[in-house]
């Protein structure tokens, strides 16, 4: 059945770094409102806001202390209402981040739980007795260290999958679920179109809280071992959907890393728990699961192609994945998927083709459309992200030198994607008239919106062209609903596939390497997208330039 969101293009805003209107160095809702026309012009329909609820910002808003209010650093509820209205006027949709695996340790519920761990609010969290002088079990949290934190003056511990300031909410307690459903519906009543759902796969724990074999020097084991064992997430997610999203025809996209083999249909099929889930296969390529950056590995273009194809094929006939090349937790896509030294406007455009032409919902992350890159900082003190600092310390504990640890951090830090948005070449890239909360990337004079807006050869204009094609009356059916058929797999470093719809058959060919490549090509075609001004074709041979990417209609 067709859904309202199938043919939409989404965009993730990281509010803190998007646009600051009151010179406090922090992006705000008024800033977002002022850029709606820019996003509309880019072709965006759905905007996902990373968390803007009240928060002590230990994990940049993913630690919520009040779900019913806007953090004053971002603005007011009036601003939020204005944003919803202004978006609606432009036929755009706003979705918020739904962070309900955990809240902040400053949330009322948790404060009350600490006062009386055995009381009503203690049951809102997972609180367990220690084993002698040790925590209840040996699981490692995502940000390092034990998942257990001791409650002062007791031998009790509370559970946190992420930082200790992010206590996990107890989804086994019907009262907690009721509170969460009520809050979700309250927001949907306000006119939100849906949610991006944070860390949701963590809500179901294996309640035996048993030790697993240690997998690191710290004597702990990755929390994912437990998640693989936990049973019953499906029932929880079904109920969540029934009590909330279903009633509003809301669009939901789950942050799901470990859907088990063969279970995709349960997540995003016709009656799936969510409308969509992110496709993280490109992101996890080469990455070590428990977020230990020093264990990450390099990968080849052929490997990249393989994961893209596999993931695309898996979703055919089942549902729509949400396609990303970066987000608020990942380094910049152009710095990760293009070899250092080969990163330029041409290769950036080649990568953009994979983002927009895949089957699924494209989610562009702020700055991706202008080709923003990783930052390169000379000191760990210039980073802000909690997991970056933890990873740096952990690398040093494991024997890396400071220089090596800094190199790792520069490559993988979540702050790479969180630097202020580059609007123009004036001071602080036009992001703020004050002092930005996180330093602006030094390359803002070369890479910024203003310089690209009126340049028809810019990375920004190329994104617009791709999105326009995706939404065009002629080709939209093929690009949104069409089949995905891999091709040219016998050529190294060439990413090629068909998007075959009812009437139109499109072919994508990307020479994803820094040298020319000849390809046998006998088709009659019409050129639709090309990141070079020309294509050399002679005697059924296509001579592709380095990083040349084309989209053609096969006639
Ligand atoms: C998600 C967010 C990330 C956050 C984590 C904990 O992965 O994207 O930024 O740290 O959840 O809420
Ligand atoms: Ca501000």
Report on the structure:
With 555 residues, this protein is an alpha/beta fold. The strands form six sheets. Strands 1-2-5-10-12-13-14-15 form an eight-stranded parallel beta barrel. Strands 16-17-18-23-20 form a five-stranded antiparallel β-sheet. A three-stranded antiparallel β-sheet has the order 6-9-8, with no helix packed on it. α13 packs parallel to α17 (459-471) and α14 packs antiparallel against α15 (402-412). Bound molecules: alpha-D-glucopyranose and calcium ion.
Coarse shape? globular
The SS-based structural class is alpha/beta
What is the CA–CA distance across the termini?
29 Å
Mean pLDDT: 96
Proportion of residues in helical segments = 25-40%
The count of strands amounts to: 23
Largest sheet: 8 strands, parallel, barrel
Measured on Cα atoms, how large is the radius of gyration?
Answer: 24 Å
Number of helices: 18
Low-confidence stretches: none
Order of strands in the sheet with the most strands? 1-2-5-10-12-13-14-15
The hetero compounds bound to this protein are: alpha-D-glucopyranose, calcium ion
Strand content: 15-25%
């Amino acid at each position: 059945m067709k859904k309202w969101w199938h043919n939409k293009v989404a965009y993730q805003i990281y509010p803190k770094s998007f646009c600051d209107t009151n010179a406090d160095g922090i992006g705000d809702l008024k800033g977002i409102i002022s850029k709606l026309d820019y996003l509309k012009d880019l072709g965006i329909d759905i905007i996902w806001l990373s968390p803007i609820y009240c928060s002590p910002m230990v994990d940049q808003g993913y630690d919520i202390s009040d779900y019913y209010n806007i953090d004053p650093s971002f603005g007011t509820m009036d601003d939020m209402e204005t944003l919803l209205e202004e978006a609606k006027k432009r036929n755009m949709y706003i979705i918020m981040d739904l962070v309900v695996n955990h809240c902040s340790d400053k949330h009322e519920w948790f404060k009350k739980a600490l006062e009386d761990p055995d009381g009503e609010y203690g049951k809102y969290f997972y609180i367990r007795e220690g084993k002698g002088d040790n925590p209840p079990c040996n699981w490692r949290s995502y940000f390092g260290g034990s998942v257990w934190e001791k409650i002062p003056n007791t031998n009790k511990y509370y559970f946190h999958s992420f930082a200790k300031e992010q206590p996990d909410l107890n989804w086994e307690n019907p009262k907690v679920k009721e509170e969460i459903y009520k809050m979700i519906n309250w927001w949907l009543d306000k006119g939100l179109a849906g949610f991006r759902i944070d860390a949701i796969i963590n809500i179901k724990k294996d309640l035996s809280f048993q030790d697993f074999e240690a997998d690191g020097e710290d004597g702990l084991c990755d929390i994912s071992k437990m998640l693989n064992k936990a049973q019953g997430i499906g029932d929880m997610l079904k109920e969540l959907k029934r009590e909330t999203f279903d009633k509003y025809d809301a669009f939901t996209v789950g942050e799901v890393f470990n859907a088990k083999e063969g279970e995709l249909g349960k997540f995003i099929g016709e009656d799936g728990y969510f409308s969509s889930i992110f496709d993280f296969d490109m992101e996890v390529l080469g990455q070590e699961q428990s977020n230990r950056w020093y264990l990450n590995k390099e990968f080849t273009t052929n490997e990249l192609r393989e994961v893209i194809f596999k993931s695309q094929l898996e979703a055919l006939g089942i549902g729509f994945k949400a396609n990303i090349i970066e987000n608020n937790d990942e380094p910049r896509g152009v710095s990760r998927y293009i070899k250092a030294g080969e990163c330029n406007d041409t290769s950036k455009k080649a990568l953009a083709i994979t983002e927009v032409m895949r089957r699924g919902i494209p989610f562009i992350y702020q700055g991706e459309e202008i080709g923003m890159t990783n930052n390169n900082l000379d000191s760990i003190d210039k980073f802000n992200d909690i997991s970056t600092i933890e990873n740096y310390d952990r690398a040093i504990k494991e024997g890396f030198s400071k220089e090596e640890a800094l190199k790792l951090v520069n490559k993988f830090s979540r702050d790479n994607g969180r630097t202020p948005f580059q609007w123009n070449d004036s001071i602080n890239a036009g992001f703020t008239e004050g002092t930005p909360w996180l330093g602006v990337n030094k390359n803002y004079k070369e890479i910024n919106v203003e310089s690209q807006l009126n340049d028809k050869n810019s990375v920004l204009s190329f994104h617009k062209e791709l999105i326009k094609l995706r939404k065009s009356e002629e080709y939209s059916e093929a690009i949104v609903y069409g089949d995905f058929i891999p091709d040219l797999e016998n050529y190294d470093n060439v990413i090629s596939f068909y998007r075959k719809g009812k009437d139109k058959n499109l072919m994508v060919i990307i020479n994803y390497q820094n040298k020319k490549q000849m390809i046998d090509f006998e088709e009659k075609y019409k050129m639709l997208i090309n990141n070079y001004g020309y294509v050399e074709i002679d005697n059924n041979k296509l001579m592709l330039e380095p990083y040349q990417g084309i989209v053609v209609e096969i006639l």
